[in-house]
């Protein structure tokens, strides 16, 4: 599919429009058409609550990473995805109440059963990544192979510790919300044309208007759409493996793919840092001598 071979989902995705699990089911129907499974890297997640009919909890399900939940939810994801194996099974959030020994016991069992290949994290702090990774390695496993975090020009907190941790431990970084919830995708132009509005959006645009004006002017000057610049900026970080683009239309998909051919100049990168300043570098030098 236009060179795209990484499909990322989660067991709870779809709950906002249909029901939890519907996104996995959609991918499952796609894979069931045959000849496609071996051509993609398939990733999903576990942690959140899964609701039954009428919103009832399933098996006293809570937001956690207990061994029982990991095992049961993996089986459910495999069924919805209509596949025998998940390439990347990600912990959707850290569970600091569950011992890492219990988490990795379940992951190790699934790996030995051939139901998952790699384990990744999502929304982990750097110290969570380090502890989880070490616990996995202590069982003679690979440990974590990736971290999926919110990361974009507007939200750069993970530059302090998460990105350095990924680099030093050899994890790939998978940014979610790469265009900042749409604010980095030409939000000001859309807002001024009346194409998007709402109390929260209005407030955010008013607060960020000077930055948005400078950003969208810069994008226009270098001849690229704002969304393309936001994605291209991520591609310049060697720790980034692949941002989660989540297009809603074919136009958005085509626009996103084109960013692979965009090389931002050092001057442009400097101007982007001036418009959207990060935390000042990596910890501790970002805030100490």
In terms of topology, how is this protein built?
Blueprint: E1 6-8, H1 22-31, E2 41-46, H2 67-81, E3 86-91, H3 100-112, E4 116-122, H4 126-137, E5 144-150, H5 162-169, E6 172-176, H6 187-192, H7 199-222, H8 226-235, H9 250-258, H10 266-275
Parallel strand pairs: 1-2, 2-3, 3-4, 4-5, 5-6
Helix pairs in contact: 1-2, 2-3, 4-5, 7-10
What is the overall shape? globular
Q: What topology, given as strand order, has the largest sheet? A: 1-2-3-4-5-6
Share of helix, binned: 40-55%
Characterize the quaternary organization of these chains: single chain
How many distinct helices? 10
Uncertain segments are 53-57
List the main descriptive attributes of the protein structure presented here:
2 domains, 289 residues, six-stranded parallel sheet, globular, 12% strand, alpha/beta, 40% helix, TIM Barrel
Describe the structure.
The protein is of the alpha/beta class and 289 residues long. The protein has ten helices and six strands. A six-stranded parallel beta sheet has the order 1-2-3-4-5-6, with helices on one face.
Gist of the model:
The chain has 289 residues and is α/β, with parallel strands linked by helices. It has ten helices and six strands; from the N terminus they run E-H-E-H-E-H-E-H-E-H-E-H-H-H-H-H.
């Amino acid at each position: 599919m236009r060179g795209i071979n990484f499909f990322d989902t989660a067991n709870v995705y779809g709950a906002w429009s249909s029901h939890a699990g519907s996104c996995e089911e959609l991918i499952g129907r796609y894979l069931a058409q045959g000849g496609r499974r071996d051509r993609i890297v398939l990733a999903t997640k576990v942690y959140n609550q899964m609701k039954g009919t009428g919103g009832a909890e399933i098996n006293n399900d809570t937001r956690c990473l207990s061994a029982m939940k990991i095992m049961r939810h993996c089986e459910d994801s495999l069924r919805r995805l209509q596949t025998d194996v998940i390439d990347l099974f990600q912990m959707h959030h850290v569970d600091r109440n569950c011992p890492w020994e219990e988490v990795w016991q379940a992951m190790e069992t699934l790996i030995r059963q051939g139901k998952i290949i790699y384990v990744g994290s999502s929304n982990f702090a750097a110290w969570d990544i380090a502890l989880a990774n070490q616990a996995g390695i202590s069982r003679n496993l690979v440990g974590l192979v990736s971290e999926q975090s919110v990361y974009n020009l507007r939200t750069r907190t993970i530059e302090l510790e998460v990105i350095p941790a990924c680099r030093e431990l050899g994890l790939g970084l998978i940014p979610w919300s790469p265009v900042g919830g749409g604010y980095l995708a030409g939000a000001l132009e859309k807002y001024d044309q009346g194409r998007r509005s709402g109390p929260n959006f209005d407030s955010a645009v008013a607060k960020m208007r000077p930055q948005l004006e400078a950003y969208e002017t810069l994008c226009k000057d270098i001849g690229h759409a704002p969304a393309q610049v936001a994605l291209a900026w991520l591609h310049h970080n060697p720790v980034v493996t692949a941002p989660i683009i989540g297009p809603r239309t074919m136009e958005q998909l085509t626009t996103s793919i084109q960013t692979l051919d965009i090389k931002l100049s050092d001057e442009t990168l400097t101007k982007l840092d001036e418009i959207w300043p990060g935390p000042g570098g990596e910890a501790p030098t970002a805030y100490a001598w």
